[in-house]
Specification:
The structure is a homodimer. Chain A folds into two domains: about 260 residues, Alpha/Beta hydrolase fold, catalytic domain (Rossmann fold, 3-Layer(aba) Sandwich), CATH 3.40.50.1820; about 90 residues, Rna Polymerase Sigma Factor, Chain: A. Chain A is of the alpha/beta class. Chain A starts with a helix and ends with a helix. At the A-B interface, helix 4, helix 5, helix 6 and helix 7 of A face helix 4, helix 5, helix 6 and helix 7 of B.
Amino acid sequence: MDQSAALIDNPHSHVTFGEGLELECGIALAPLTMAYRTYGTLSAAADNAILVCHALTGDQYAAETHPLTGKPGWWARLIGAGLPIDTDRFFVICINVLGGCMGSTGPRSPRDGGVAEPWGTEFPPVTIRDIVAAQAKVVTHLGIHRLFAVIGGSMGGMQVLSWAATYPDRVFAAVPIAAASFHSAQNIAFNEVSRQAIFADPDWRGGRYWVDGLVPARGLAVARMMAHITYLSEEALTRKFGRRVRRDPHVAPVDADAPLSLFGEMFEVESYLRHQGSSFVRRFDANSYLTITRAMDYFDVAMDHGGDLSAAFAGTRTRFCIVSFSSDWLFPTAQSRTMARALNKAAANVSFVEIDTDKGHDAFLLDEPDFDRTIRGFLSGCAEHAGLG
Amino acid sequence: MDQSAALIDNPHSHVTFGEGLELECGIALAPLTMAYRTYGTLSAAADNAILVCHALTGDQYAAETHPLTGKPGWWARLIGAGLPIDTDRFFVICINVLGGCMGSTGPRSPRDGGVAEPWGTEFPPVTIRDIVAAQAKVVTHLGIHRLFAVIGGSMGGMQVLSWAATYPDRVFAAVPIAAASFHSAQNIAFNEVSRQAIFADPDWRGGRYWVDGLVPARGLAVARMMAHITYLSEEALTRKFGRRVRRDPHVAPVDADAPLSLFGEMFEVESYLRHQGSSFVRRFDANSYLTITRAMDYFDVAMDHGGDLSAAFAGTRTRFCIVSFSSDWLFPTAQSRTMARALNKAAANVSFVEIDTDKGHDAFLLDEPDFDRTIRGFLSGCAEHAGLG
């Protein structure tokens, strides 16, 4: 199979920048292709654009049926006509991150932009700032100087912070959700285990799995399963699954008369996780997973400003709305509070909302009416201040 | 190499029961070999014995140099002359769990007790009750009817509860530490991911890795790394490692002039986890890991008593001291509190202590003076009530 040809024939809506992008690591990546989707209509003044930033395993299909999975967009609940991110009013942009695998330049892209083999593991390390710089090129390409709002959860929230710190004049309002200004030791540790799980897979082949048409499916599934636990709360797992069991079709009972009905059965939570793992590997590239988790680990806004987080936002006129979830232990409320304090110290306009929920980190993707009301209210208020029609 | 011969030549102190043990799954395991260590001297009345139960990856070498690693015993800090578990006063027993890999019958044992090949993945599923039943045979063999105390942390605490529920007349005092009366959905989920990590290793060979002299080292290391994160608190990880980096000797910097010194370096927490993973696989058997994690998942004391935890302890005269750690998120304080409430409902003699610490689940293995004082005080008080000299 001619991998390169398939790669060049990008099935996703995209724009290519011939001049490329110089990355923080010093490597110039050219050409640079960015895949994106838009919803709603850009106003004549180009002042109603909202950039929605996706999380680690998300992509640009935020508000429409996903072309690979056939499932609704990951924020279809929030983005649309009359919804909190109202497409009757706002022009919504969602861009596949640099290093991703849904049409933007990443480890699957041909190395010289032409017919060479894919980058694979040789794809240069990228940072959240690189990801944001690549997005900025798309935003400019769309004729937009200043975004009305940048909004995103988890790694999407990291991008929001990076936008606000790097391009303060291009962001009227910023909504970092379930995020932090740096990746914690615990989160780096979980990411490292997921990388090791991928490396342990025999089909990993040192990262050149595509040569033989393979994917390190088992390792990537293990990585996804582990990460998935961290996205939920203990309460949510208990509520959804508890200790309920189901018959494991692959295991015969040891002894039909055994007093414990458990043997030959599996816990529902196991079956659920296996499904999460196996469906993930059908849509995600392992080298992208490695690249993007690394970008998260590098993330530390304060580090770019002498270790002082408030200095990163000195003089900002952006309006911030920081959102956390009470049961999120991956990006706990304390980390959002640290952000809020630093922004207060920088005399920024900031509101901070902790949503009371037992759904854990993933709450930003789930039905959480208080959260929806918060987003709708903040965006409406900002639109009024910005003089949007 | 003649695997079987090596297996029969058990280098660990042990006792073999020809009649074996009938497991809860209905399978009779015969003969049954149990490896154990003792410290201190049994009194003439045989009333001063303390059974110390080890955790998932622990073993019987609780208070002496480990024969494989050369490190001090895992509870050398607590067990010894003049220490909280005072060997001048008590006779301390520690037994390698059934299903383990340090001399007790387990997946590495020859299948027919003789020259056949090891059980491997065909080793029957065991439960915490089976583990405790096998321990009870050793205790009887040592001439002890009633234990002065049973004490253990994590999975060791599960064994303590099972002892108290199954043999109430044989346990004067019980100290379950950092434990729970059932394994939660979140903990089952983490265990399942660790099992999948082992299965994903090419050297796993369907569980028959020993045939080719292999071990699924990468998968087992991933399992251990992930589990290790859950044993620590976010605070402990931050305190120990934060976001400090060190040069990765295996990775050349992408660009020596790169503005980010991070490329070509790794976070200290990553290096630490890799070390934890690789040192673990040298001393632990993958099939034992699978067997024991399964036993933990099955654990639910209430289930054996119609779903009523207090019924499991009805009429008990055992004195309980339940200990939890404030930053333990694997076996959170709330689960210990549930135990304490059920024991109160059963009119049991129970005290409940939450130790304030940021060290997480592993605090029971670490230097924590408040914890040491709690153990010493409870055992002394009980010894007085028991009329021990």
